[in-house]
UniProtKB/TrEMBL annotation:
It comes from Acanthisitta chloris (rifleman). Keywords: Actin-binding, Cytoplasm, Repeat. This is Unconventional myosin-XV. Pfam families: FERM_M, MyTH4. It comes from the Eukaryota. Belongs to the TRAFAC class myosin-kinesin ATPase superfamily. Myosin family. One of its GO terms (cellular component) is cytoplasm.
Amino acid sequence: QSSAPSLTSEPNSTMSVPAGDNYTMTDFATAYFRAARSMQGLKGTSAEKKSAADLVQHTKVPIQESLLPYSDSELNELATKNFLTLMQFMGDHSKPKRQTETACIYEILQLCKEKETLHDEVYCQVIKQVTQNPKQESVLRGWLALNLLTGYFLPSKILMPYATKFLQLASSDPSSTHHDIAKICQSNLRKNFMYGGRRHLPFPVEMEALLKGHGARRLEILMPGGMEYLTRVRTFTVAKEVLQEICEQMGVGEPEEIQDFVLFALRSKTVKPIKPEEYLHDYLLEDKLVTLTLRRLLWRTPLHLENETYIDVHYGQMLWDYLRGKMLLSQSEEMEMQVGLLAMLQHWAKEDQQNSAPSREEVMEYTPKILHASINPKALQNHIATLLRTRQPLRPVDAKIEFIEYMMKLPFFGYNVFIIERTSDNTIPVPCFFAVNKDEIIAVDGSTQAVSCVIPLKELQKMRTLQPTSPDRLPSLELSYSSAASIKVMWVELAQAKELYHTIVVTLDKTEL
């Protein structure tokens, strides 16, 4: 056994702040600190209260043994070493010549990452050193350490109510210098409790910015249609917070509709949906090669086309998918009529284009490349000329709304479409479309639009991505699903195998809510 029997590293089952004067850090020290044992003869006296309070107040000298009792000598040694590192980080003790404050804080966080049994010890050490510390700069450094600690590591279920009470008291005094950062620590701890804390320690650039007091960074999110949304994120901002902020700008308030939107992380050719509870900084790598984008993944709630930003986002996403051949038009002999109408709507959606006809080059830009070979250019131009003669030009916002409403009537609207090159199922003609919505996965023939395979999401058992078997092959996704009381396994080969995998996972997560 390495720690006192009364302390446990299990996470707390509640995050409520204790009422009244109970659960102060002095109470915790009296019950659990190693040094409290020597005060048992003073029980109930004013001397006991003063001595207990001293246990959780700043000290000028390094501790010689851990604050909490450990029977494992290695843990005791690590605890005392950590206290000295903490003092060096806070400026309460001199550092070795080549030791930086960044190295000090990394050492503390790495210890917590490797030794869960020391979480409570480190929490108590930091709280002790920020309490009644006469040096304001040291106090600030201590709170910066606590800011990181609360976002990464939870205290035990025993310490949790005491730590929560300490932060609540520290944040309730607006005159104190650490009022604001104490509130941030409260928020960090709450999110850590709900979502599990960040996975990766800060990169050096992020850490240096934090130590300089730059707790937030500017972040650009690429919106559908090429717009950019500018926001500021903190070290422990989760995707859910940014999604709610963007949705507020779009006039989206219903929780179910907010959950239909997803942030994606793009790096090179890799695309991964970010779950609402995931920390954005776990994706924002130091090389700045990661781009965040917004996309509507599900369509469970009716669209409300009143807010201009809302309209722009939906128009931008549908246009992007349409031009890349992922919005399957209704099969008919009048394909040129559909493409012509959609080309005119795109033209009118631009500012100051209501009184001009699109050029031949613009018409081709407004037409999906996948249709260039099958469309009759002359018939398309004739249909556009007819539209120009018979229809009044639309304002950009009205053209976008009509484009959106047209897309919503298409047979496979609401699916996230991928193109597969090969499959183990010889009943599926390839290449073909492989599409996912809130209910099912389907394989669709691109020319006839015949559905050759349907896999209900509720029947999906497991998935895994597979590496290419040779240089001329693509990655693949293997799916196991139940069918007629038996398990079927099939694989599909496509360049975006991992993106398809993650899209299905996030869709399952959201539809189970």
